[in-house]
Amino acid sequence: MLERMGRLEIKPEQHAALVDGRPLSLTVRELQLLVTLAEHPQRIMTREELFSEVWGGTPRSDDRSVDVYVSRLRAKLGEALPEAQLIHTHNGIGYRFAPEV
């Protein structure tokens, strides 16, 4: 189990993410992406690393799956935790999970 991060709790073994004890409605890929980012807090993960961890393999050069799923995940997290910014973009590099309220 990942540690609780404020109001957010991630339970990969239960395939769940909770805010204030209530489940977030995340797809399997969104949850895998959240778990992967949260397992490496404060570390910038490249799109290629995230793709490899979540989808397996290497993305094509024009594949935007990571960006699309990060956007969807941010929207869902933003709705549940409007006061928090959890996923930070590093242009040209990738994304970093760093809970900031």
Helix segment count? 3
Low-confidence stretches: none
Strand order of the largest sheet: 1-2-3
β-sheet strand percentage: 25-35%
Q: In total, how many beta strands? A: 6
CATH architecture level-2 label = Orthogonal Bundle
Count of separate structural domains: 1
Radius of gyration: 13 Å
Q: Percent helix among the residues?
A: 25-40%
Quaternary structure state of the chains depicted: single chain
What value does the average pLDDT take? Answer: 92
Protein structure class: alpha+beta
H/E element order = EEEHEHHEE
The CATH class turns out to be: Mainly Alpha
Q: Gap between N and C termini, in Å?
A: 22 Å
CATH fold-type name: Arc Repressor Mutant, subunit A
Describe the protein in words.
The structure is a single chain. By secondary structure, the chain is an alpha+beta fold. The protein has a single domain (27-100), classed as Winged helix-like DNA-binding domain superfamily/Winged helix DNA-binding domain (Arc Repressor Mutant, subunit A), CATH 1.10.10.10. Helices cover 35% and strands 26% of the residues. Helix 1 (28-38) packs across helix 3 (65-80). The longest helix has 16 residues, at 65-80. The radius of gyration is 13 Å and the shape is globular.
Key attributes of the depicted protein:
101 residues; alpha+beta; Arc Repressor Mutant, subunit A; 3-stranded antiparallel sheet; 3 helices; globular
